Give the backbone structure.
Amino acid sequence: MRARPDFLTRHLAVLTVGHFTIDAYSSFFLPLLPLMVTRLGLNYAMVGGLTAIGSLSSSFAQPLFGLAADRMRRPWFVALGPLFAATFMASVGLDRSYEGLVALLALGGMGVAMFHPQTASLAGASSNKRGLAMSFWITGGTMGWALGPAFATTVVNRFGFERTWVAAIPGLVMCVFLFAWLSRTAPRAVTHHERAPIGELRPVLRPLLMLYLTVVCRSAVSAGFATFLPLWVHARGGDVATGGWLTTIYLALGSLGGFMGGWLADRFGGRRVVVRTFAAAAPFYALFFVGPEAWRFVLLVVGYCVLQASLPVNVVLGQELSPRHAGIISSLLMGAAWGLGALLLYPIGAMADSVGLEPALMALSSLIVVGFLCATQLSRRPHEVVADAVTPLPTS
């Protein structure tokens, strides 16, 4: 029998499966956008607005849940997340108004916000190989996000667009499983010293801001291409199923980059990985717009795979800045930063309505250069910042 990798603990496995499940619902609506456009007469700005609203609720609520999770003996939010995400995200086929879709995505996004902050902190602390453990957890989520479009198109092809609610079943099962798992785990001891004041983050504000802006740029490019790729395929004569499967391939191969990023960071350092992945991804995104038609999708996938290598590294770098605030920092980098990145999709959609989809995507991809410049400002030795910023916890 093959031995289990030493970084893969039982806790990490459970957290990763949960992350896979909930993130599948985050991308569930993406391949269905052409159907929504036809049914409701949406333009590109409205499509960008849908993604922005869903991401805003899931992202900017994360710091609040992160603060609460850092003070809870058992993170029950982790179990409630799949319930909300599955119920509301899988109900998009029931509503026939734009306002209703916005409400469903916003409520489903709250479920995503409940799940991520505490599980990111738990995943990072579940193994002595922090970078690899975080990569494994994040890869579970990105694989779920990648397979969400294929899941959606399969459900619609089998049951019809009006019965997308059938897709909520796996999320409800995961909710029950997580409640049972949490009830059997030892409660977390929350002491006075663990309730670290937010003011302790003041000495690390500059590196945290640079890291935050780096994540904003990466997430805007990632979410933007994932949102508009089905419509790009549809504009070239592809059907909904084709757009869904190409989006799944795009996201799935990108998740491999995320896993490799953690492995590389454990060997060469997180800052170096972030800087070099942004630099290496830029040419592939540029070639997507000017390369041969037959190779454009391949170039985009390679660029996305390289760019995603920075995803788990950013979270680990943030947690290292102040380990006592792991929950709130994780929620800022995976929540508020992703939310701001997604918010940029509305003006990108409006630009697409005005000048065309590809020029708008070209403007969006220029954020890779901005992210690279921010990444170059990250501290070369984050452990020194930690030593200055965080007062050691008293030992017993």
User: Anything to note?
Assistant: The mean pLDDT is 80. The chain has 18 helices and no strands. The chain has one domain: 10-388.
